[in-house]
């Protein structure tokens, strides 16, 4: 059984997250975070592992199929006992379903089958396949912007939008929890969002560096080229 005092001590030991896109990295390393998470009960640690296995981007390999990802999500929803955490999981899986549909359409694919994804939205998506946001702008206000960013090939802008909405969902569903396991789980899920942005930003910076280096090398080559 969880020790409430231990969870209060755990939460107060965790440094506050800075604003997303302002911080260049999470407020503490994964190693230090793991050391603090040793205060969790075995049951809560298992629940957190289930959440991370389902929602953490590095947990999915390039070979993971849509079917496998959706099966993992359904198993996680069945395994997580806390209603607040199931709500976070459900909302973020619905979001991923919509993103997967946008990507499917962008790649030239057809509408998804009836039982596809989460939230019972597959039929609505299929019925409005050619609409920019599948006619779902009202329940999902971010979806129209996401569709536009994807169509324009703005990968970094798309990533920013997805992470912003993922963080908003997590914070909203954990609202009112400050010193319990719900608060700890939300902190870790937001840590993963910050870590994802740090990695995406670093990758973008590396691409910009290589592009500049290639351009500089090309200019240098032009100097010595025969006229």
Describe this entry's structure for a reader.
This protein is mainly α. The protein has one domain (4-224). Helices cover 65% and strands 0% of the residues. Helix 3 (42-55) runs parallel beside helix 9. The protein is globular and about 55 Å long.
Question: Keyphrases for this structure?
Answer:
227 residues; mainly alpha; disordered C terminus
Brief overview:
This protein is mainly alpha-helical and 227 residues long. Helices cover 65% and strands 0% of the residues.
Largest sheet: none
**Proportion of residues in helical segments:** 55-70%
- Residue share in β-strands: under 5%
Strand and helix order? HHHHHHHHH
Mean pLDDT: 88
- Overall form: globular
Number of continuous helical runs? 9
Through-space gap between termini: 79 Å
List low-confidence stretches.
Answer: 212-227
Broad structural category = mainly alpha
Q: How many separate structural domains?
A: 1
Total strands: the figure is 0
Using the CA coordinates, give the radius of gyration.
Answer: 21 Å
Helices and strands in order:
Blueprint: H1 4-13, H2 30-36, H3 42-55, H4 66-79, H5 83-106, H6 122-127, H7 143-152, H8 155-173, H9 181-224
Helix pairs in contact: 3-4, 3-9, 4-5, 5-7, 5-8, 7-8, 8-9
């Amino acid at each position: 059984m969880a020790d409430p005092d231990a969870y209060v001590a755990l939460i107060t030991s965790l440094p506050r997250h800075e604003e997303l896109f302002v911080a260049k990295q999470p407020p503490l390393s994964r190693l230090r975070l793991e050391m603090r998470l040793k205060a969790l009960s075995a049951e809560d640690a298992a629940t957190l592992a289930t959440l991370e296995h389902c929602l953490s981007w590095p947990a999915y390999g390039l070979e993971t199929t849509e079917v496998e990802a959706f099966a993992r999500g359904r198993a996680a929803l069945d395994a997580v006992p806390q209603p607040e955490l199931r709500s976070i999981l459900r909302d973020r899986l619905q979001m991923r379903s919509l993103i997967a549909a946008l990507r499917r359409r962008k790649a030239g694919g057809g509408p998804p089958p009836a039982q596809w994804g989460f939230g019972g939205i597959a039929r609505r998506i299929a019925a409005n396949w050619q609409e920019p946001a599948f006619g779902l702008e009202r329940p999902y206000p971010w979806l129209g912007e996401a569709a536009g960013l994807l169509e324009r090939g703005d990968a970094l802008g798309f990533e920013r939008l997805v992470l912003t909405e993922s963080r908003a969902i997590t914070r909203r569903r954990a609202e009112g929890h400050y010193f319990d396991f719900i608060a700890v789980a939300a902190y870790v899920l937001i840590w993963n969002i910050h870590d994802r942005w740090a990695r995406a930003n670093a990758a973008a910076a590396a691409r910009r560096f290589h592009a500049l280096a290639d351009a500089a090398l090309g200019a240098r080559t032009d100097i010595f080229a025969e006229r």
